[in-house]
Amino acid sequence: MRSLKVSDVMWNHIEPIRVGTPLTSVVKTLLGNHVTGLPVVDDQRHVLGFISEQDCIHALLVSGYHHEGDPTVDDVMFREPLTVSPELAVVDLAQNLGAGKPKVYPVVDHGKLVGIVTRTAILSELAKTGFGVEMPRYASADED
């Protein structure tokens, strides 16, 4: 199990959010991919920030109340997200998860986004490899 790396459990099929994207489009992307947040990147896939469901909820409440129109991801994103390497051991990442830590981590290799890893993916892998738990079958973002 120690040899299992982030690259083995990361999702690389979900497109990140591009800078300048309207928040309503961000919400559609989050809901459509069943993720709680996504990295925000520039045209070269450099991670500039991170946008979560919570960020969107707050911004939409505020903009709706003040009738300010549709904000962009640039107005709302967290600008210093934690990122992980694809070579990081899943066990090491799992040991650092806790209260106040992200649920989704951008995976960055040579300065560019290559995927995301979620707490759900880590939990699923730990359950399968560590305890032999048969995972329930359900529709996920992997089946698009």
Automatic annotation (TrEMBL):
InterPro entries found in the cross-reference section: CBS_bac, CBS_dom, CBS_dom_sf, Diverse_CBS-Domain
Alphabetic keyword roster: CBS domain
SMART domains: CBS
Keyword Ribosomal protein in record: no
Domain called CBS: residue spans: 10-68, 77-135
Transferase is among the record's keywords: no
Top-level taxon in the UniProt lineage: Bacteria
Protein name, as recorded: CBS domain-containing protein
Organism in which the protein naturally occurs: Marinobacter santoriniensis NKSG1
Phylogenetic placement of the source organism: Bacteria, Pseudomonadati, Pseudomonadota, Gammaproteobacteria, Pseudomonadales
